[in-house]
Design goal:
This protein has about 375 residues and is α+β, with helices and mostly antiparallel strands. About 35% of the residues lie in helices and about 25% in strands. Strands 4-5-3-12-13-14-11-16 form an eight-stranded mixed sheet. It has a three-stranded antiparallel sheet with strand order 7-8-9, with no helix packed on it. A three-stranded mixed sheet has the order 10-18-17. It comes from Taylorella asinigenitalis (strain MCE3).
């Protein structure tokens, strides 16, 4: 059993499966003691995490898994088109590259465990190419110097990549400002409600008035939503990243998920970005960078002498719902709307979520059923 981690700018339109499944629940004891475990839970955070974990376990039944797959797939089918639409409007469509991505396995056991999931994906319109070891390395000769470590690979041609997601988002922000938008940087300390509507937001320095409010604060959304009258079981999966200097011409042509290690290695123009798996420790615990740096020597071994110095490492917070479905919904406040909880699919689902929230704001009927993403489902 491996936990899929998505990173490095992959628009992961194929990743419809929730994290909570019966197979995962059965595998938790072995995952927690594995050397390369994709899940880490800090013991000091367990009491605070327990209510979320109980809901997570309750979501891991066949009926709920099928429901989550259908709901996520509906969003994902529209995700790439939404990216291309907004990128074209902003003039940055060239930043979206049709690279696809690989899932590669160094053992027969790891590949066999994942194969059933790949085959089931055909029911959701997802295409995979199954590659032998020779076929994979013929496509990716830059990896041969590492000794042809992967025995099996599958390739998904449907997933584009944004090599520089930070710059991509910055340019979309610039487009927003050119269209008449306004940026205010403030830490919101409180939302003030009167007669069922939010009248204004308070920061440490000033008051912000608006006709409508969208709470899209990622892993920090829960407190703000509570002030609208909803108790939503949102927590965070902490994800660690490292970036290693590299010449793009000496890297793989597309991101690679290393199945047994549950890490994604994504090529950038001047570096290789490596994304780790899941740590549950909340928003305030100190970083534990060894969860990603422990893979450095293995990653370097794939590329021989083609990687340079470590450039940076950092921690990101993935806003996580127990059932892996985001919240895209009206709130109990008549003029407040909710958009968070996308887990590993934040970049992928950002534009389609924005379009759906715009429909709700304008009173239009959304393009498909949003009930699976309701704030009231728990």
């Amino acid at each position: 059993m491996n936990i899929l981690v998505i990173g490095g700018g992959v628009i992961a339109v194929t990743e419809y499966g929730p994290i909570a499944t019966p197979e995962l629940i059965r595998s938790i004891p072995s995952l927690l003691i594995s050397k390369n475990t994709p899940i880490t839970l800090r013991a000091t955070y367990l009491p605070q995490m327990l209510p979320w974990l109980i809901k997570f376990a309750k979501s891991a039944n066949k009926k709920q898994v099928a429901h989550a797959c259908e709901a996520l797939n509906a969003l994902l089918l529209a995700a790439a088109e939404a990216h291309y639409k907004i990128a074209q409007a902003a003039g940055v469509q060239g930043m979206i590259e049709p690279n696809g991505w690989y899932k590669a396995f160094e053992t027969d056991t790891g590949y066999a465990a994942a194969r059933a999931g790949f085959e089931m994906a055909a029911n959701y319109g997802i295409e995979y190419e199954y590659l032998s070891q020779d076929e994979f390395y013929a496509r990716e000769p830059n990896l041969i110097s590492g000794g042809m470590r992967f025995k099996h690979a599958v390739y998904s041609p449907q997933c584009p990549q944004i090599r520089n997601p930070g710059r991509y988002v910055e340019l979309l922000g610039e487009y927003f400002l050119k269209q008449g938008g306004r940026l205010e940087i403030a830490e919101i300390s409180k939302l003030v409600m009167n007669d069922g509507v939010i009248t204004h937001a308070l920061s440490g320095t000033h008051m912000i008035d608006a006709d409508a409010f969208v709470i899209a604060a990622g892993a920090w959304s829960r407190r703000l939503v509570a002030e609208c009258g909803s108790n939503i079981p949102l927590d965070t999966e902490r994800g660690y990243h490292m970036e290693i200097e590299a010449d793009a011409s000496k890297l793989a042509s597309a991101p690679i998920l290393w199945g047994e290690r549950s890490i994604v290695m994504s090529p950038r123009d001047d570096s290789l970005r490596v994304t780790s798996s899941v740590e549950f420790a909340g928003l305030h615990a100190k970083p534990h960078y060894v969860l990603v740096t422990k893979h450095e020597s293995a990653v370097r071994s794939l590329y021989g002498e083609n990687l340079g110095q470590m450039q940076s490492k950092w921690l990101g917070f993935r806003p996580s719902m127990p059932d892996s479905l985001p919240v895209i919904s009206k709130s109990k406040a008549d003029n407040a709307f909710l958009a968070f909880g996308h887990g590993h699919l934040g970049l992928t689902l950002g534009p389609i979520t924005g379009l759906l929230i715009a429909d709700l704001l304008c009173g239009n009927a959304p393009s498909f059923d949003l009930s699976p993403f309701s704030a009231n489902r728990f």
